[in-house]
Amino acid sequence: MGASLVITVPYPKKKKKNLFMTTEEAKLLWDHIKVKYDPMWQVILAIVMFRGCRIKEACAMNLHDFQNEHFHKVDMILCKSHIHDEFPIIKEVAQVIKAYVLKNRHRMVNGYLFPARRNNSKEPHISQNYATQMFIKFRQSIGKAHSQFLDRTVYYGQTYKILDAVRRGIVNRKQMGRALGYMYRTIKTEMYNLHKKGYLTAHKANEHPELTELGEEYLRNAKQKNRYRIGWHSCRRWFETQLYEQGMKIADIAFIMRYKDPKEVYTYLDGYKIWKSEAKILESKFGDIVGSFFHQQQGQMRLDYWNK
Prior knowledge:
This protein is mainly alpha-helical. The chain is built from 12 helices and 4 strands.
């Protein structure tokens, strides 16, 4: 009996999952929140889904950010790029915001559309974390009837992977970066932080870092995380891909999204184009060739049969 060869791959590279929300799913999300939850969440969803704002930017909106009582334009400082600009709001979304403000003006402490729910909150408006926790409820509720809302990827976090690599003897930053798929700078920063937290004895390769007792304990107790396909950021991505679907130029989309580096627009749109048309691309570019192989094979089989 021959011996079998077993190859262990600690972190196999997986195909990137479909992170794009379809229009049908967006409609389900909209209808569900509109019927079952506080009108505040419909307004937030409208801002994220139909203006492409990040959830943190939507939560921080203030009455004074809007240029007039029609709510057609809003001044914002984007939380990632720090770009300060005015952003037009489409008429239907402006009407939803206006109706909400007229009905809930008495609740808006210091002018914030979505004020913090607790007096001891660190921020004067609802936090990104609170909005994320609410989306978990939306997803679980909709997922009972529409299981695609529960699509997820299970993974270990960055801290676990780096500590595990050190445990396996990979301490060189470049080697670790290749093994885990992280940039050198990311490894360098994280190794330093883990050493500072007491998880590693050192953070430089020539100092031969090892796990401390605290680091060993972290690995023993670490749990896998879930990354769900549909979340607040999916709404922003849906807005971006819908602009592309309407035939808008890539450069114009990059401007509307206010990317600091216009090349960032390709991060999602390139993947979206392939995800949507992969089957058609294969069929149009390769279908005739594959068909000729199969037709030839079938014909050859028939000839062999009659020649017997």
